[in-house]
Structure formats: structure tokens, C-alpha cells
Design goal:
InterPro entries: Peptidase_M14. This is Peptidase_M14 domain-containing protein. One of its GO terms (cellular component) is extracellular space. The protein is built from 8 helices and 6 strands. By secondary structure, it is α/β, with parallel strands linked by helices. It has one domain: 3-Layer(aba) Sandwich (Aminopeptidase). Helix 5 links the parallel strand 4 and strand 5. It starts with 8 loop residues before the first helix and ends with a helix.
Length: about 250
């Protein structure tokens, strides 16, 4: 979008017709911490760096102090105080003491609901590693879908078909709850339920879930992954242009 603007007619048209907002990272403190050591527990760090909470527990141990909140469990959508896994500060998926307890999630909420973006966004895609899935709302329980789920599913299917047309990655499509199990307090669920954004997705990049330690994408995976992904992203972009008659 940046380097090929004015060179590639298709990209030039995209930028002229649409506004793109790119957030490279939404957990800056966790990201910085994850790069302070090659130890797997540090490199695989998932949460932010919220101050130590000493109500954690493990088998036969209580009142353990642990840092951080899983930001993708901290949104105010079906926030689940009764889920033992999400309520343990020593778990990677600790949801925090209450919805939007963290400055990072509040920043996302406030920006999406602010004057600049409110009612002005049609498509939101959050990229994660890993699993080879295009995830649709809702994910707090199985068999729970927004009213326009078919529209989201149909567009995701078109994008997936475009990605794999030359034998590339075959992305599964559905809710995470249906494919791998429920999770509450997710960003995409809150966004779909509380904003006017119609098309809301999480794309879990390759490799598939059978690969160990794949949250750290290998350097040699980067180019082929994003080359094939760009074909799918253009399907999403073209749909918005057609939908808005731009």
C-alpha cells in the first residue's frame, strides 16, 4: 500500500478510495518483554505487563504472584468471572479483574468509539499466530452467531478460496468456539457487538495447530505467508469497495 502507491494501479485505486488504519502491535509492553530473553517462557509471553497479582495459584500452591493480563480476554463481552482458567493470574489467558481493566484495551475501545472511527469502519481484521483459521464472531460459546453471520462466512470463503488457488494454505472458517473451544472477553466479539463494523475477523496465520512453538513465525515463512495472504486480503478490500459503490 505504501511502496506501490502510484506504481500499481490496483493499489493506487485502493488507497484513493479507502482509508486504511494499521496497528502493528496492540501489546507494546508484552512485545518488548518477549524480546528480552531467548527463554521460551519469555519469548512465548502472551499477556501485557500489568503489575504482579498475588492471587494466583497452581496445584498445591496458592497466593502466587504473577504478572500480566491477556488483553484478548479483557473486553466487555461475556466476561466470565466463573471460568477458573481465565480467573487465575498465573494463567496465560488471565482475563484481568474486570472488563477493560487494562490501558491497552481501553485505548482500542476509545479509539473505535471516538469521533474519527465511529460509524466509519466497514472491515476490521486482526492478525494472530497461529492456526490457519479465519475466525468469525462469536466465540464465547459454541453455536452462537451474529445475525449477519452468513455474510461474513461467505466473504471469508471467497478469500480462503483465493488464497489456496495455487495450492497454498487452506484456511478453516468458523468461530473459534466451534473450531477449537470457547473463549470469553475477546476483542473481535466486543467489536462486532458494540460497533457498527459489519465485517470483523481474526486471521490466524500459518502454520496449523499441530506445529509446536509456532507463535514465533520463522523468518523464512514471512514472505510466502504474506504473499498468499495478500490475495485473500484483496478479496475483502474489493468487497468493501463494491458494497460502498466507490
Amino acid at each position: 500500500l505504501v511502496s506501490n502507491y502510484g506504481i500499481d494501479p490496483e493499489i493506487t485505486s485502493y488507497v484513493n478510495k479507502l482509508n486504511f488504519y494499521v496497528f502493528p502491535i496492540l501489546n507494546p509492553d508484552g512485545y518488548v518483554f518477549s524480546r528480552t530473553s531467548n527463554d521460551s517462557l519469555v519469548r512465548q509471553w502472551r499477556k501485557n505487563r500489568a503489575p504482579s497479582n498475588c492471587s494466583g495459584y497452581m496445584p498445591y500452591r496458592e497466593r502466587i504472584c504473577c504478572y500480566g493480563v491477556d488483553l484478548n480476554r479483557n473486553y466487555d463481552f461475556e466476561f466470565n468471572q466463573s471460568n477458573i482458567r481465565f480467573n487465575n493470574p498465573c494463567n496465560d489467558e488471565y482475563q484481568g479483574p474486570f472488563p477493560f481493566s487494562e490501558p491497552e484495551t481501553r485505548a482500542v475501545r476509545d479509539y473505535l468509539l471516538g469521533e474519527e472511527l465511529r460509524d466509519n469502519v466497514d472491515l476490521l481484521i486482526s492478525f494472530h499466530t497461529h492456526g490457519e483459521m479465519i475466525i468469525l464472531p462469536y466465540n464465547h460459546k459454541r453455536n452462537s452467531y451474529p445475525g449477519d453471520y452468513h455474510d461474513l462466512q461467505q466473504l471469508a470463503q471467497k478469500a480462503s478460496e483465493k488464497i489456496r488457488e495455487d495450492g497454498s494454505t487452506d484456511y478453516q472458517i468458523g468461530t473459534a468456539a466451534d473450531m477449537v473451544g470457547p473463549a470469553t472477553g475477546g476483542a473481535s466479539d466486543w467489536i462486532k457487538n458494540n460497533t457498527s463494523i459489519k465485517y470483523v475477523y481474526v486471521i490466524e496465520l500459518p502454520p496449523d495447530l499441530s506445529t509446536s512453538f509456532a507463535f514465533q513465525m520463522k523468518p523464512h515463512w514471512l514472505y510466502p505467508t504474506f504473499t498468499e495472504l495478500w490475495r485473500g486480503l484483496k478479496v475483502f478490500i474489493n468487497e468493501i469497495i463494491q458494497w460502498r459503490e466507490l
